[in-house]
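Q: My collaborator sent me two sequences in one message, no labels, and asked for predicted structures for both. Can we handle them in order? The first one she listed is below.
A: Yes, handling them in the order given. First sequence, followed by its structure tokens:
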Amino acid sequence: MAFPEGFLWGAATAAHQVEGNNVASDFWALEHTPGSFFAEPSGDACDHYRLFRQDIALLAELGFNSYRFSIEWARVEPEDGRFSRAAIEHYRDVLQACHDHGLTPVVTLHHFTSPRWLTELGGWEYDKTPERFAAYCGKVMSELGPLVPYACTINEANIGPLIRDVLTAAPQDGREPAGAPVGVTDQAARDGEDALSPVDALPADQDRPKVFLFTFSEQGVSIVKRAHTAARQAIRDASPATQVGLTLALQDIQPEPGGEKQAERIWAETFEDFVPALDGDDFLGVQSYTRSLVGSDGPLPVPDGAETTQMGYEFYPQAMENVLRRATTAGLPLIVTEHGIGTADDSRRVEFVRQGLAGLERAVTDGVDVRGYLHWSAFDNYEWMLGYRPTFGLIAVDRDTQRRTPKESARYLGALAQRNALA
């Protein structure tokens, strides 16, 4: 494989999914609400907050040169306007550990979870959220900016419209639409386990919490875009050398006969409508897991007989190549910030990576400007509403002992990274 010099090879995590005990966040509160639609609480998660040094050393040992992780807003600003020096110094240590081990940090400043106090104010429907978010980003970058070469403001800024489509799609044959966002789907019981269905467990529209994942309204989507642009300016002011962008969840939208207009609508709502907010960004993070088939009434179920993952997604690694080619219309360099598969069969993860990277190489050969591939996820971690059942990790985690065990997929991808770094 031939990739550009300086290409980022790595894996990704999100703070709430791996750190453990994120007690000041809105999701922690939801997990512990009676009758919660979360399958289980996050608890200690992977205890990454304590074990980050050994985890970063392991990623470097496996052959990676980059690590994408998030800084948890609820830790840095546990109360409105009060910043935690201890939390900032913790993330300084995480960043320094990356540099010490030769890993380029790709930092995400918001990965789905927010401080409880923000949600109590109205969350991502609250008109003052952009300035609150920008103040947090500015504080972090004024302290840590020289250690942060890449900063993603918001993870999957377009997730609200995607989830809205899933929740409003008419059930067909009792199956959820293909390509539903992570943690909001009916799990395919591929391994014989009972399927989980968080979609059915979600509260009614009027009772849904005002958290980032459920920011569906036109006002809410506008606030997310404003938050990105305000944060970008705050980052630039504090750390001009840092490359700034955001990430989008981009499914490979494929219309069936009669579904062309619906497919155009979905692509417009989840990509084209966000392009104006990217004006002035340095890169776009692309996150792709599968394709979404679309009929005349909207998203369709996975085709009969298709291989599915633990999330109910169709096994379709070629989606990444197709999405990268379409995303070039944003006019920005691209970084694959997530691409992965929930499966208990690691040989299928190896095949998913192999096919995905073959498509990525074809895109790069054809001139698509891709600067990195960051696999989701580094570890088997907390998968939001579905708890710990889905396993996306390159590295297995025994949650009783917190012992880490690299899988064959980790060694396969790490070896590719090493070979390409030496090419």
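Q: And the one she listed second?
A: Here it is, processed independently of the first:
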Amino acid sequence: MARKKDIEGLDDIMLFVNQFYGKVQKDDLIGEIFNNVILDWTPHLEKMYSFWNAVLFGVAGFVGNPFAKHAPLPISEEHFERWISLFYATIDENFEGEMAVNTKKRAETMALMFLSKLKAMRGGSSRVIV
């Protein structure tokens, strides 16, 4: 089997973002949450390309507050676990190397930070409050 390449730039980001959110849209746990909020996926995907390009390669262009977008959603720890699982699977299916590992670490750090902030907002609970 051929060795997978590492994440090297915007084309690779577009590949994993598209594949990842394709999985998210079809997922039985988190798909409905995303699909109820995102009616047109094109702008969301474009924003995610910019976000990951900024996070991984320091390329300016992302504007936004990701936590503010997630805070009102009916999400809990199990949703973050599924998100991470799908994200890791997408990266592992397509890439290997230092940047691939770094990308997964950064995604997990963000998920843990979001979950921690949500718990604090909800009085220390990870339960869904709707």
